[in-house]
Prior knowledge:
Helices cover 34% and strands 22% of the residues. The chain has a six-stranded mixed beta sheet, with helices on one face. It has helices spanning 15-23, 60-69, 92-105, 133-136, 141-158, 164-167; strands at 5-11, 28-37, 46-54, 86-89, 116-119, 122-125. By secondary structure, it is α+β, with helices and mostly antiparallel strands. The protein has one domain: 2-Layer Sandwich (Peptide Methionine Sulfoxide Reductase, Chain A), CATH 3.30.1060.
Amino acid sequence: MSDSLNKIAFGGGCHWCTEAVFQSLKGVQKVEQGFVASTEKNHTFSEAIIVHFNANLISQKVLIEIHLYTHNSTSNHAMLNKYRSAIYTLSKKQAIEAKQSLSELQHEFDQRLITQVYPFFEFKSSDQRYINYYIKNPNKPFCKNHITPKLRLLLSQFMKHVDVKKLGGAVKP
């Protein structure tokens, strides 16, 4: 990837959770929360985020690894249309690298990864009241029960990639 700002999109579980995880990372400049559609059979929108990142500070492979560990990337659950476990790529090169990363990271998981690589096609932003959900509502039950544990996992497994100032006061290292 080039030295300039890069983009990649991730889907996996609730986009409030995914947004909070990726907002906390060094090298991530911006996270857009909403719904992503791909092409063909995955043309319907599912919850996802677009991550704008500086590849000099955090690699695409590290972003993918964090994505796999912070959502249920091995469960073939019934809500896969709404919560698609996916990496949405914006170029053929990015897709090749994403597939290679999935292959290399599979050995870290006991079960088969269900996360798929799809071409990015379209994005719809979430309603403004849901953007930065965790930052605005860290003490709400959903945040405490679902997002805070993901941020704690992030701190325990990926601390060197976390910008503690971005976490706010809800989760401490």
